User: Fold this.
Amino acid sequence: MKRTASVIFFHGSGDTGAGIKDWVRSVLGRDFRGAHIRYVYPTAPWQRYTPFGGDKSNVWFDRQKVHIAADEESESMSEAYSIAKGLIREQLDDGIPLHRIIVGGFSMGGALALHTGYHLNTSVGGVFAHSAFLNRESIVYDSLANETDPPELCMLHGTNDQMVEFDWGRETYDALSELGVNGSFTVLPDVEHELTESSMRDVEQWILEKLP
Assistant:
């Protein structure tokens, strides 16, 4: 079947595209549904990551610490932006219209998806972010102040997340909502920093509704 839509799924820090694809498959017991959809699982560059003690890892960008009050590293983010733009360009070059491209991710990958859909390219078909947050002073909020029709958002977050606090995800969603973003915030009771079968089923259902 000809692919008429694309989903770009950014992994979390220290993972790979193959790793997150396998994780989705393990919790669902299968791949995401939608034979008409191309699911793209890119791998972040191997680079120095300060929260890992400066060791190198597969990360989309660097940051001084994982905390909502930390500053964004604009120089490092710009390199991640180049990757995200390139991935979208590949889909466009393959004939997929922009409104049929969804960007999403887990943890750090979810943050990059939020930057991609609400700062870099607000004409994508939708954004999902699992166990993710934006820094309080994020450039994303500045961009949205002038945006009239941002993409729909699907956010999900576990209440027992020890790495990315639940409240950070909720605060991010509320801030985006105040700036005109429509969407849903799914509370995952007793879930830690992880994908689950129910959360991936929710994401899959949302994708299939957005990309029929």
In short: DSSP finds six helices and eight strands in the chain.
